[in-house]
Amino acid sequence: MDDTQLLRYSRHILLDELGIEGQEALLSASVLMVGAGGLGSSAGLYLGSAGVGKLTVVDHDVVDATNLQRQVAHTLERIGQPKALSLLTAIAAINPDVNVVPVTQRADAALLATLVAQADVVLDCTDNFATRHAINRACFALGKPLVSGAAIRLDGQLSVYDPRDAASPCYACVFPENSGVEETRCATMGVFAPLVGIIGTMQAAEALKLASGMGSHMAGRLLMLDGRRMEWTDIRLPRLPACPVCGTRHTG
């Protein structure tokens, strides 16, 4: 690190759990974030301000006026602009040293196979089950830790799925593809603006701990937030032997 970086990241360097070595690990880390909306706005700003070396942002959507109630990385002036590009602009205004790579296409299996392979940590900041399951499959196949967040109405959740941990479940263990759960969207159900900030910031925290070498204690746990009462529920989750993605019956 040069003198400018030592000053910029001085409050991180003062932390015994992080220090110079941890910050240098962040500066050389590659993080993939899928989704630049409510969760991705908050997560992306903190990943950028903390000095992640490379942040690849995948989002095929554009900024809309209805996004501005909660997607704090975007502005009125950038309505109609791709969200990935808007987030690049927002991060550059805070920390121009971060290499933000915007990808303005849908995250399909082929794209994820390429991008997940290049990442140290992956964040799922999306809002639909199909993409979530595609990200999960790619992360498990390539052995990359996945930080997953979700927020709808006044309810939020956070978990880390780490295929490097033999006891850690994957997303499909907890939310099977064939579960028949009805998908809910912000456009029809609404979402409390600060909730996506709370969950997105926590996603950034877990990703930074993983990328810096500090380590996360969230694998095998699902944190659920009731935003009405501001009450957290912490559930322990096992890996399911019959899971079609990570179960022993399928992975041998």
Structure description:
By secondary structure, this protein is α/β, with parallel strands linked by helices. Helices cover 39% and strands 18% of the residues. It is built from eleven helices and eight strands. An eight-stranded mixed sheet has the order 3-2-1-4-5-6-7-8, with helices on both faces. Helix 4 links the parallel strand 1 and strand 2. The longest helix has 20 residues. It starts with a helix and ends with a helix.
Share of residues in strands: 15-25%
How far apart are the termini? Answer: 44 Å
Structural class: alpha/beta
Kindly state the mean pLDDT as a whole number? 94
**Percentage of helical residues?**
25-40%
Largest sheet: 8 strands, mixed
Order of helices and strands: HHHEHEHEHEHEEHHHEEH
What Rg, in angstroms, do the CA atoms define?
17 Å
**DSSP summary, beta strand count:** 8
Order the strands across the largest sheet as they lie in space: 3-2-1-4-5-6-7-8
**Shape annotation:** globular
| Uncertain parts | none
Contiguous helical run count: 11
Layout of secondary structure:
Layout: H1 3-8, H2 10-13, H3 19-27, E1 30-34, H4 38-49, E2 54-58, H5 83-94, E3 99-103, H6 109-118, E4 121-124, H7 129-142, E5 146-152, E6 155-161, H8 171-174, H9 186-189, H10 193-212, E7 221-226, E8 231-236, H11 248-251
Parallel strand pairs: 1-2, 1-4, 2-3, 4-5
Antiparallel strand pairs: 5-6, 6-7, 7-8
